[in-house]
């Protein structure tokens, strides 16, 4: 599905998400193949316990469409991830090899997280790296003018700016005030 989206073109954020998803799923496939190779999976006899979950996932994925390739990819991937949760839950109910059950628990949590993130993207929210970066404040004429003037830090201004930091580090007991008893509004009478 990621290859289809890349061929169709789409929103850069969705394309990035699609590539990350494809890389992640390739790694998960390799891990599952490794688990199969160790004989950890028990042979299943009789009816396929996953048939219903797989069929529901398939139907949801086929029905999922969007207004453009990016939206369609996201909607189909939500159905895919929710199907992964359903299949993991089938295994967790059946029980079995502890290593496989742990992988199923991790897969269910991860697939639910991925589906939730895609649903937020569909609602227009920024997620992932785009959400982590703080939004730049909107420039107003006043802030634009301030930004163009280099700011100098004068020693007095610097000391004033650092005063709250120093106050936070001050000892619990108050120090003697050298100006105690002086009228700070009337500085003409002061001899020091």
From TrEMBL:
Residues 129-147, 164-175 have a biased composition (Low complexity). It comes from the Bacteria. InterPro entries: DUF305_CopM-like, Ferritin-like. It holds the Pfam family DUF305. Residues 1-122 form the DUF305 domain. Residues 1-22, 126-192 are annotated as: Disordered. Signal peptide: none annotated. This is DUF305 domain-containing protein.
